Amino acid sequence: MATNPTYQEVLHWASSFLEEHQLDGRASERLLLERLNWNKTDLILAFKTEISTETKAQLEKDIDALINGEALQHILGYEWFYDRQFKVTKDTLIPRPETEEIIEKFLTMNAPEKGRLAVLDIGTGSGAIAITVKKERPQDCVTAVDISKKALLVAKENATLLEAEVLFLEGDLTEPVAKKQFDVVISNPPYISEEEKPLVDEVVLTNEPHLALFAKENGLAIYQRLAKELPSLMKPKGQIVVEIGFKQGKAVAALFQEAFPASHVTIEKDLTGHDRMIFVQLP
């Protein structure tokens, strides 16, 4: 009687097949673990056992989708961010692990015992930053803005699924909140220059909204606008945290230092040692 191959054999085939197509072979293991809701230990324990026909068929379908240029997160329909599952579509930027460091910075600077803060997330996309802020500090009043109506629909769905009370507003950067003031403004804006587009992975270009990726003025256009628009929105002793491209630290820091001359502006590095964010502490 014919038997199915083992998990180990199927994963070896899948990873080799992906690598033959210049793709990351490790994606096959992640797809399998996510589909089965397993951790690595579960997989190791099952390594030598026979894979089910259904699981093998699903993995083959997923590998085929990867080969055809679909993003892994879109195949699954979600991505993990700060240990929570967020729905993602082609209308939203896929949350990156590096962006979790923005959350870490925010939480480090705002201890749990600190009172209620008014927090604004500009360019919320899937809602990952705004929702995470609300879940980690439930006392805060969180507002999230995006210019994309379709992205906001995804963000609202994530907020509902994760039971996070966030006010979502449609509009261009600070326009929907022009008459309000905030203790903290957080943003992961588009910052890739048009000139860098040929260097961007084809999977990213095909699967993620260019509106959330690219910016004019050498990638600095949104930072220039934020530096101009944020001073009227900030409360005394407020904070601004923005993600940046790894070559943009000095340029973006200079923009915010000029906009907030009495403030302390620092370039913060990520875990790999690259410039990752600008932090502004108002007096």
Automatic annotation (TrEMBL):
<keyword id="KW-0808">Transferase</keyword>
<feature type="domain" description="Release factor glutamine methyltransferase N-terminal">
    <location>
        <begin position="9"/>
        <end position="77"/>
    </location>
</feature>
<feature type="domain" description="Methyltransferase small">
    <location>
        <begin position="109"/>
        <end position="200"/>
    </location>
</feature>
<dbReference type="GO" id="GO:0032259">
    <property type="term" value="P:methylation"/>
</dbReference>
<comment type="function">
    <text>Methylates the class 1 translation termination release factors RF1/PrfA and RF2/PrfB on the glutamine residue of the universally conserved GGQ motif.</text>
</comment>
<dbReference type="InterPro" id="IPR040758">
    <property type="entry name" value="PrmC_N"/>
</dbReference>
<dbReference type="InterPro" id="IPR007848">
    <property type="entry name" value="Small_mtfrase_dom"/>
</dbReference>
<dbReference type="InterPro" id="IPR019874">
    <property type="entry name" value="RF_methyltr_PrmC"/>
</dbReference>
<dbReference type="GO" id="GO:0102559">
    <property type="term" value="F:peptide chain release factor N(5)-glutamine methyltransferase activity"/>
</dbReference>
<protein>
    <recommendedName>
        <fullName>Release factor glutamine methyltransferase</fullName>
        <ecNumber>2.1.1.297</ecNumber>
    </recommendedName>
</protein>
<keyword id="KW-0949">S-adenosyl-L-methionine</keyword>
<dbReference type="InterPro" id="IPR050320">
    <property type="entry name" value="N5-glutamine_MTase"/>
</dbReference>
<dbReference type="InterPro" id="IPR004556">
    <property type="entry name" value="HemK-like"/>
</dbReference>
<dbReference type="InterPro" id="IPR029063">
    <property type="entry name" value="SAM-dependent_MTases_sf"/>
</dbReference>
<comment type="similarity">
    <text>Belongs to the protein N5-glutamine methyltransferase family. PrmC subfamily.</text>
</comment>
<feature type="binding site">
    <location>
        <begin position="188"/>
        <end position="191"/>
    </location>
    <ligand>
        <name>substrate</name>
    </ligand>
</feature>
<feature type="binding site">
    <location>
        <position position="188"/>
    </location>
    <ligand>
        <name>S-adenosyl-L-methionine</name>
    </ligand>
</feature>
<dbReference type="InterPro" id="IPR002052">
    <property type="entry name" value="DNA_methylase_N6_adenine_CS"/>
</dbReference>
<dbReference type="Pfam" id="PF17827">
    <property type="entry name" value="PrmC_N"/>
</dbReference>
<keyword id="KW-0489">Methyltransferase</keyword>
<dbReference type="Pfam" id="PF05175">
    <property type="entry name" value="MTS"/>
</dbReference>
<feature type="binding site">
    <location>
        <begin position="123"/>
        <end position="127"/>
    </location>
    <ligand>
        <name>S-adenosyl-L-methionine</name>
    </ligand>
</feature>
<feature type="binding site">
    <location>
        <position position="146"/>
    </location>
    <ligand>
        <name>S-adenosyl-L-methionine</name>
    </ligand>
</feature>
<dbReference type="GO" id="GO:0003676">
    <property type="term" value="F:nucleic acid binding"/>
</dbReference>
